[in-house]
């Protein structure tokens, strides 16, 4: 079981499923939403995701048509993103996970947007846009 929370602890969740393809995103939207050079996210099955506490603290912002980014209203911590056309999937922000998990990113995406000050110091594959096969 995976346990996670926001910065203030007001929002807490459990996830009982597997991760999809974990990526490191460098798009300008993620940089602005996270306030850092990257976001590490993984698709998860929404049906296996459960809010343990604080679901009333979650706010969603529609950052582009049909795409919502969720965060805690109290501390501002980003939690997940989702698309209206894929309600069965949440793209979980891996930084919210509280317990140790055996999961690693497999690629950098939207690398055409990497600013000069953001280092990529690993050997993961790099894609100018989304990773191949992602719908």
UniProtKB/TrEMBL annotation:
Domain CENP-V/GFA: 2-128
Assigned keywords, A-Z: Lyase, Metal-binding, Zinc
InterPro entries according to UniProt: CENP-V/GFA, Mss4-like_sf
Gene3D superfamilies listed in its UniProt record: glutathione-dependent formaldehyde- activating enzyme (gfa)
Molecular-function annotations in GO: carbon-sulfur lyase activity; metal ion binding
Nucleotidyltransferase is among the record's keywords: no
Pfam families: GFA (PF04828)
Highest taxon of the lineage: Bacteria
PANTHER family on file: CENP-V_GFA DOMAIN-CONTAINING PROTEIN-RELATED, GFA DOMAIN-CONTAINING PROTEIN
Family, per entry: Belongs to the Gfa family.
Protein name (database record): GFA family protein
């Amino acid at each position: 079981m995976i346990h996670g929370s926001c910065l203030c602890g007001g929002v807490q969740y459990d996830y009982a499923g597997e991760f999809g393809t974990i990526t490191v995103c460098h798009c300008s939207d993620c940089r602005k939403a996270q306030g850092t050079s990257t976001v590490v996210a993984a698709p998860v099955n929404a049906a296996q995701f459960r809010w343990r506490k604080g679901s009333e603290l979650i706010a969603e912002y529609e950052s582009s048509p049909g795409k919502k980014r969720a965060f805690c209203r109290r501390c501002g911590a980003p939690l997940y993103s989702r698309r209206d056309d894929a309600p069965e999937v949440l793209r979980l922000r891996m930084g919210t996970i509280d317990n140790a998990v055996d999961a690693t990113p497999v690629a950098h995406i939207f690398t055409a947007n990497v600013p000069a000050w953001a280092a990529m110091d690993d050997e993961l594959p790099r894609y100018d846009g989304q990773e191949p096969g992602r719908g």
